[in-house]
Design a protein that fits this description.
The complex is a heterodimer. Helix content of chain A is 44%, strand content 12%. Chain A is of the alpha/beta class. In chain A, β6, α11 and β7 form a beta-alpha-beta unit. Chain B folds into three domains: 138 residues, Nitrogenase molybdenum iron protein domain (Rossmann fold), CATH 3.40.50; 120 residues, Nitrogenase molybdenum iron protein domain (Rossmann fold, 3-Layer(aba) Sandwich); 145 residues, Rossmann fold (3-Layer(aba) Sandwich). Chain B is 46% helix and 13% strand. Chain B has 17 helices and 14 strands. In chain B, α2 links the parallel β2 and β3. In chain B, α7 packs parallel to α10. Classes of the chains: A alpha/beta, B alpha/beta. Chains A and B meet through α4, α5, β3, α6 and α7 of A and β1, α2, β3, α3 and α4 of B. β3 of chain A pairs antiparallel with β1 of chain B, so a sheet runs across the interface.
């Protein structure tokens, strides 16, 4: 994957009309000049014109820092990252929000995570429900632990779940309710797994803090509960895939076809039963690096499961990731099977590419989402002949931009220090290094980099624009200056972009679409972008009289 | 089954809310703020609040919903949010240049005890509020009341901050429309216009959250009540407030602050409530009702006359907000339908009594609850099935599981369009309501009738 990406960068020149082209550095200065000086100094480090200094070193970007109040950012909160993103897609756990009603209400079914309860024997599915303690003023004044305890009891009595988790919201942290003490007590009383998350909305600087809190909770309370080893020649976990619009189903289809068994997906189409024995897998595959790399690292330390980064978004990345997995296992049977599958799947993909390419070739795309998708979707746009010209993350860290080699140099600021780093040690019985040092070295020579992620900026040509935590103002300036053919972000940005007359694709929830992962997903995405960019609607925006207003006389009859 | 864990057996719950029929105050305050012209709503709390509120309003309206936040971090939560709000106001006026910033609080800033007027005072002293620009605020702790309370509080704040007596009464009426859609506000304005009344409506989200596609994004669309108009509300001759919970507090504040007398009415949903609205406007303004309104009313009654057979004594279950449900129940009863399950998530002492009195003569028992949730509502439906469900988008899970016709009405509607453009209030709105009811019921007849019974003419 790496080799191909580098080659692409060299081949690909950002081809814009030189007469009309506004230099990104000029635009950056213009944007900064609008801001008060203190804000401008901060934003100057978050708006980067990408350039390849050397093959290894890309310009530094400031990321995972506080959003300036009043700037209108895309970001949400720690609770959203923990409850909404990571824990939300698991169907057979009761996710109980401890707080006033809003937090639970807004995170109720709004992320389009699909799930198939028929694949777990008990058929539990609580995803269509919203559970909350609905704290009121008396709990804020006198404490909410009593109500939380009673709510857990009621949830247990009525629904008989296997597991309950509790999410702390902003006021819970302030009034000092101890969700961990209450859940421990109720776990003992009821005899099922019950645990809490300290994911108060004010923690950290974005959703990212919540991902980390969720990772810690899963690792401490769920992973490793069940030592049953499932059958399968190649047994992997898929980390950071949330089954938005059915992505995980398409990935499952392809991996199964290759003979690869998914033990657990974190956390699309997931069951806590799958999490419980995920530590028995051979390999962890990481899709969204930002939201889940902590689990991968901790599972490697405790259980000896190696991990590497894959990307199943775009046909090219899908094939390369499959080859990488096959190469990791090194068995001819799998290598051959993967090639057969690729050969079977690709004709339909190539046909779709050929169909849309003439209508999309050379057009600009911009994407500002998440902690991974702004990177993953670039390959998808290139496959349509489009140019990912500006990109950035909403809540990523520097390693997601520049690659994990920057990790040792990252400064831990006050906001990150508040998020617990677990001390993980080898499990005395269950640690089992899946791969020897010699094999590891051999793999490195074959260019499979374990525990690595090269980041987004390495994949973007010089002269492209990277913006961390983009603001509404910056979004508008990019749209006005470069008039992209398509802009990708989330629901809050969707309609302000479209009012500019520019199609906007949601890359968080996929609008109403998906799956976009895998081969069939790539085909869906090509058609989706083709539909949006080439829709007739864009021709209708101006009425005939607005297009030629000069004629304003009228006939008169005597 | 989508809601496979919902059982028929009703067990009393004291602490656990399942599938809420309400959300929190700040989103209501944000919606009301968008009804001020040139206003940027501001959420004084952590980022998640404004992100969630903007997302939900955006999904409901499919329109840009602009707002800002104080972006509290752990530090602000310990030391208070003054520095965050001051910096936010400076950035907002510098970068986004609104006429007004409407600040609402959250559970976080309320628990800390931030004093917004004191922070405004500091901002004024520090010169952070430019000449000719305005700020206002409402306290909207998420742990008190619901989204409806937040709407009411921000609407009242418009009075508290701006309404002024100018010494004499103008021949003009204030209309407080309550938490209704932009299309409803437009319809209420149209009716007042038909009556030839000079009026000020606040808040007014028409032309804000139903703005046209022009190829040019306007951060502050054309609509919304202006600050000058809000100031003038203090010298109007009277106020008509629609919906006790959403509009009552603002109307009474205007009365006590500026001595503008008010009438608080039900939302004009259906025949009788619209009759009272038109009659009140007529008397307050001293005008005659024009023939055009009589025609609309007559058309509505004509539909009821012609189509009775299809809705007579049909059982309906309603879930939503008190102001809407009270008026809707009256409407349904008035056309011989039977609303038998009526539930709101908002706690309101008078609600249950009022519903029971409206349904008193209906030949059926009624389940009514304020402060309930949709889990209980679903259980009621399981125990006593109905012919029609009316509620927000979340009800579609119940509708599908129980195979019952369903009309989307209320907040939020996340999966259909129409509510921003086509009103459900006044006579024309009632006609549309009836059209929706008939479509739902008659589509079901078409679906379920045998080939032998299948009717062309209905």
């Amino acid at each position: 994957m790496e080799a191909l990406s580098k080659k692409r960068i060299d081949e690909e020149k950002v081809s814009l009309d030189p007469d009309e082209f506004i230099d990104p550095e000029t635009l950056k200065l213009e944007i900064l000049s609008k801001y008060p000086p203190k804000v401008a100094r901060k934003k100057a480090k978050q708006i980067i014109v990408n350039r390849k200094e050397t093959e290894e070193k890309y310009p530094e970007i400031q990321a995972n820092v506080r959003t300036v109040p009043g700037i209108i950012s895309q970001r949400g909160c720690c609770y959203a990252g923990c409850k909404g993103v990571v824990m939300g897609p698991t169907r057979d756990i009761i996710n109980l929000t401890h707080g006033p009603i809003g937090c639970g209400f807004y995170s109720w079914l709004t992320r389009r995570n699909q799930t198939d309860p028929s694949t777990t024997p008990d058929g539990h599915n609580f995803m269509n429900y919203c559970f909350s303690t609905d704290m009121e003023d008396k709990e804020i004044i006198f404490g909410g632990e009593k109500k939380l305890r009673a709510a857990i009891q009621e949830a247990y009595d009525i629904f008989k779940p296997k597991m309950i988790s509790v999410f702390a919201t902003c006021p819970v942290g302030l009034i000092g309710d101890d969700v961990h003490a209450v859940t421990r007590e109720m776990e003992e009383k009821l005899g099922i797994t019950i645990f809490g998350f300290s994911c108060e909305g004010y923690k950290g600087v974005s959703q990212s803090a919540g991902h980390h809190v969720a990772n810690n909770g899963l690792f401490q309370h769920v992973i490793g509960l069940d030592n049953t080893v499932k059958d399968g020649d190649y047994r992997v976990n898929l980390l950071g895939e949330y089954n938005i619009g059915g992505d995980a189903f398409e990935i499952e289809r392809i991996l199964n076809k290759c003979g690869i068994t998914i033990i657990s997906t974190f956390s699309g189409n997931s069951s806590v039963d799958f999490f419980a024995n995920s530590h028995t897998a051979d390999l962890n595959l990481i899709m969204c690096h930002r939201s889940i790399n902590y689990v991968a690292e901790m599972m490697e330390k405790k259980y000896g499961i190696p991990w590497f980064k894959i990307n199943f978004l775009s046909a090219g990345a899908m094939s390369q990731s499959l080859r990488k997995i096959a190469e990791y296992y090194g068995e001819q049977k799998l290598i051959d099977r993967v090639e057969e599958v690729i050969a079977e799947e690709m004709p339909a993909v190539e046909k779709a590419q050929a169909e849309v390419r003439p209508r999309l070739e050379g057009k600009l795309a911009m994407m500002f989402v998440g902690g991974s998708r702004a990177h993953h979707y670039q390959e998808m746009f290139r496959e349509m002949g489009m140019i990912p010209f500006c990109a950035g993350y909403e809540f990523a860290h520097r390693d997601d931009y520049e690659g994990r080699q920057v990790l040792p140099n990252l400064k831990v600021d006050a906001d990150s220090r508040n998020i617990q780093e677990l001390d993980v040690e080898k499990d005395p019985e269950r640690y089992n290094p899946r791969i020897s040092i010699e094999e590891l070295e051999a793999l490195e020579r074959n260019s499979i980099k374990l525990r690595d992620y090269e980041g987004m900026m390495t994949d973007m040509p010089s002269g492209t624009i990277v913006i961390d935590d983009i603001s509404q103002y910056e979004t508008e300036r990019l749209l006005e200056t470069y008039k992209p053919a398509v802009f990708c972000a989330g629901i809050k940005e969707k309609y302000s972009v479209q009012k500019h007359g520019i199609p906007m694709k949601q890359l968080h929830s996929y609008d109403n679409g998906g799956p976009y992962a895998g081969y069939r997903g790539a085909i869906n995405f090509y058609h989706e972008i083709d539909r949006m960019v080439n829709s007739k609607v864009w021709d209708h925006i101006k009425a005939p009289w607005e297009k030629s207003p000069e004629l304003a006389a009228r006939y008169t009859y005597e | 089954m989508l809601l496979r864990h919902t059982s028929k057996e009703i067990v009393e719950r004291k602490s656990l809310t399942v599938n809420p029929a309400k959300t929190c105050q700040p989103i209501g305050a944000m919606y009301a703020s968008l009804g001020i012209h040139g206003c940027l709503p501001h959420s004084h709390g952590s980022q998640g609040c404004y992100a969630y509120h903007r997302s939900t309003l955006t999904r409901h309206y499919k329109e840009p919903v602009m707002a800002a936040t104080s972006s509290f971090t752990e530090g602000a939560s310990v030391f208070g949010g003054q520095a965050n709000l001051l910096q936010a106001m400076d950035n907002i006026f510098t970068i986004y240049n609104p006429d007004v910033i409407a600040v609402h609080t959250t559970c976080l800033s309320e628990t800390i005890g931030d004093d917004v007027p004191q922070i405004f005072g500091k901002a004024k002293t520090d010169g952070k509020i430019p000449e000719g620009k305005y700020v206002l605020h409402a306290n909207t702790p998420s742990y008190v009341g619901t989204h409806v309370t937040g709407f009411a509080n921000m609407t009242k704040a418009m009075v508290d901050y701006f309404a002024k007596q100018n010494g004499h009464k103008e021949n003009r009426i204030n209309i407080i429309p309550g938490w209704v859609e932009p299309s409803d506000m437009k319809e209420i304005k149209r009716i007042a216009g038909e009556l030839g009344i000079d009026f000020i409506m606040f808040p007014d989200t028409d032309n804000v959250l139903n703005s046209p596609q022009t190829g040019k994004f306007e951060m502050y669309p054309k609509g919304g009540v202006t600050i000058d108009e809000l100031i003038s509300t203090g010298s109007s001759s009277g106020t008509v407030a629609l919906g006790e919970l959403a509009s009552g507090p603002a109307a009474r504040a205007l009365d006590s602050k500026c001595k503008v007398p008010c009438k608080v009415l039900d939302l004009p949903i259906g025949i009788k409530a619209t009759d009272r609205f038109v009659d009140t406007l007529r008397k307050m303004a001293g005008v005659n009702v024009p023939e055009s309104i009589n025609i609309e009313r007559g058309q509505l009654i004509d539909i009821v006359t012609d189509m009775q057979a299809y809705f007579y004594h049909k059982k309906v279950a309603l879930v939503g907000d008190p102001d809407q449900l009270i008026a809707l129940t009256e409407f349904l009863v008035s056309i011989d339908m039977m609303p038998i399950h009526i539930l709101t998530g908002t706690k309101d002492k008078k609600f249950e009594k009022k519903i029971l009195s409206l349904t008193e003569e209906m030949p059926h028992d009624v389940n009514v609850k304020s402060g309930g949730d949709m889990y209980l509502f679903h259980q009621w439906v399981k125990n006593e099935p109905v012919d029609l469900l009316i509620g927000n988008t979340y009800v579609k899970y119940i509708a599908r599981d129980e195979d019952i016709p369903f009309i989307r009405y209320g907040f939020p509607i996340l999966d259909r369009i129409g509510h921003s453009y086509f009103p459900m209030v006044c006579y024309r709105g009632a006609m549309r309501f009836l059209e929706k009811i008939l479509d739902a019921l008659m589509n079901r007849i078409d679906r379920d009738s045998s080939e032998i019974e299948f009717d062309l003419v209905m």
